[in-house]
UniProtKB/TrEMBL annotation:
Taxonomic placement: Eukaryota, Metazoa, Chordata, Craniata, Vertebrata
Any Gene Ontology biological process: sperm axoneme assembly
Every CFAP47-like immunoglobulin-like domain range: 82-225
Protein name: CFA47 protein
A GO cellular component entry from the record: cilium
Signal peptide: none
One Pfam family named in its UniProt record: Ig_CFAP47
Superkingdom assignment: Eukaryota
InterPro entries listed in its UniProt record: Ig_CFAP47
């Protein structure tokens, strides 16, 4: 018999859930909460046959049409995250009003191909400083895996304001993946496009998630230097205390 917890009317109950993964795969569990009256009596319910399907699956009804217990079921998904390390950020640098493309390579360790779990390990990344996407993309990796493994990725910015500024200036696409059967590591190679319109310097995080479970995070740094001078306007003086005028056109980049 399970030992119950007594709750006063409108009292709150905190239920701690401890998660200690040993492999980089998703774990699933359910938290079941069953409540009954302390005196063992039922809650009166006149027409038990009229219970809707959703409520019927969560209550225990006795023959006398009383509700003996109510049950809540909360599914829990445990997604391991690789230990954070002090990586040197992948730096993408470009002069403002120009466009640059860089290759960024990340190494995922502990990827679980299907049910064959491998021990969780530290992640690492190397950067080889070369289309647009800060939107999540997915890739099916089938070479060497017993089952199909998909990867989701996105660039996470420090705030929504920075995201609104950089979202349209940065693109990312997964162009190549390799799986080392001996070490059990997966290498993902991204193509990062950066087309800044003004000088900036912002940090970001590349987040990679495997659908079999596991999250890896890699720091990035985007730097835009000062742009070239657009044009030089020369105004010739016609004399002292006299105005000289030069006309030129400006074209708006937006509506």
């Amino acid at each position: 018999d399970l030992t119950g917890t007594r709750l006063a009317p409108k009292e709150k109950l905190d239920i701690p859930v401890l998660f200690m993964p040993d492999t980089m795969k998703m774990y699933e569990a359910v938290v079941i909460i069953h409540v009954m009256r302390e005196n063992g009596e039922n809650w009166p319910y006149e027409d038990s046959t009229a219970l809707d399907k959703d409520l019927e699956s969560r209550v225990t009804v006795r023959e006398n049409s009383g509700i003996h217990g109510i049950c809540w079921i909360y599914p829990v998904h445990g997604i391991p995250e690789a230990p954070q390390q002090k990586f040197i950020p992948a730096v993408v640098c470009c002069q403002a009003k120009q466009r640059v493309e860089r290759r960024v390579e990340v190494l995922l360790t502990g990827v679980v191909p299907g049910a064959n779990a491998m021990p969780a390990a530290r992640n690492s990344a190397t950067v080889n400083t070369n289309k647009p996407a800060n939107i999540q993309e997915e890739l099916q990796v089938t070479d060497g895996f017993s089952t199909t493994v998909e990867f989701l990725y996105e660039i996470q910015y420090q705030s929504n304001e920075i995201k609104s500024q950089l979202g349209a200036l940065i693109g990312m696409q997964l162009i190549q993946r390799e799986w080392d059967t001996e070490s059990g590591t997966v290498t993902l190679i991204f193509s990062v496009v950066f087309a800044p319109n003004k000088p900036i310097r912002n940090e970001a995080t590349l987040i990679v998630q495997c659908t079999t479970g596991g999250v890896w995070k890699f720091p990035m740094l985007f730097i835009a230097t000062k742009p070239e001078v657009d044009d030089v306007i020369n105004i010739e003086a016609v004399g002292l205390n006299k105005e000289s005028i030069v006309g030129f056109k400006l074209t708006s980049q937006t509506r």
